[in-house]
Amino acid sequence: MTTPANQHRVPTRALRQPPARSESAHEPEHNSSTPGFGIDLTTVPAVANGLDGPGTPLDPHIRAAMESRFGHDFSDVRTHTGPAADTSARAMRARAYTLGTDLVFREGTYRPGTPSGDHVLAHELAHVVQQSRALPCTSAPVSAMEHDAHRAADDWSSGDVVRVTGQSSVQVACLDEDEPLRDGGANGAPASATAGPPRPPQAPEPGVGVVLTDEDNQKFARERKAVDVYVKYSEQALDNQSRTGVPALVTLGQMVLESGWTPDKSASYFGVKGDPKAGPDKVVWLSTPEPVTAARKLREMYGHYPEFAEGEIKPGAETYQVTLPFRRYANVADAIDDHSRVLGSGKYSKAWQNPTDPEQFGRAIAAAGYSAGDRTKYSADLVSIMQTLNKAAAYARQNKKLDPVRQMIDVLKVSKSPESYEQARRLIPQAIPGFEALPAQSRLPKLRELENRLINAGQPPDVAAKVCQP
After folding, report:
1. The model's pTM
2. For 245-294, where are the alpha helices, taking DSSP H only?
3. Per the database record, which ranges form the eCIS core domain (predicted)?
């Protein structure tokens, strides 16, 4: 970053009150009294109050996802929330504003992980990128910079690589309070600024109610790949389903379809195209089948990159192999988060008509064009993998191969009898490695962490507390 956050602090005594709102609906772009981009920070005491304190870095998962899509380093970004930030944003008549690498949010506006919250954050990060590119004397029209930031936020919500083309000096850039929040949906529908996101409808947990045949049991005992994938990634997929509503079977099924039964190898996981300028830590070049009809466009987009390579296009073939850039993730949690944001875009709105039916959800994703290839084949392959994983989940459950927390939940689903609670408590040493060797004072915080894991997995707080009582 060229402008560290602590270079922007301005003592309150050097500032004057923000100008009054003009009565005109069409003010000149460079009028200093216009709320929005280009406000002179030396005239605004509210800015110093909003930046009072060091701020908070972006959550690692959110930061990784944003950096992957923007192709920009956000390690210096600091967010400011709470009463002082809220008062500052209100004084600026803004939902949020950016100054260099500092982001100040009105109460209820900073909600990363929700469609409207991510849209606002992407808008403000676009201003961070703009202000990192220019010399202090650079001037830019308000409308151009705001249009650029709006477009970047829309790119984020639609699942595309985020494009930021503008540049400006380090100035206060406000998202006006009259600007409706967007939810990233197909029509850019306004979203509530203060209401917390409701728990989304939930698909059934994989494997529940599935009856395995002798042939199924023999198959999974012999071929472990599906069971291994489910056991390794199911907790993260189920946690994501609880938060976002994306069915866990869809998450796991697309991971396997896009990256095979050992998805960690590529570090791409979901086959989402990346920005080739982002660098090797954010992008991995992989060989993939693409429609022959797209060959010319792909050459125009990527042909000047040395990593780009094309296979032979055989006569009559519908697809050919080509090496293209895909988003690369530090871990599977970042990949799952980003995948859910992609599926939350308006492009896949029809999938959300059936969020409790994983197969219908998956078919809708395929029909919307998640893959550039044959959509019918992609749909059939995805559903087949999901059906295999559903049976693998049942096998893992029946053979006690699940995460200990998931085993606890299965025990408590049967009954809430004293025997069931005792059976669940016997799994604590498996859920907390080294638990029995811990001194008494060190066990309590570990039990509280386990209690929170049970609650996050959908268990009532009183049930989780009873399982984890010292």
Report:
1. 0.53
2. 248-259
3. 57-133
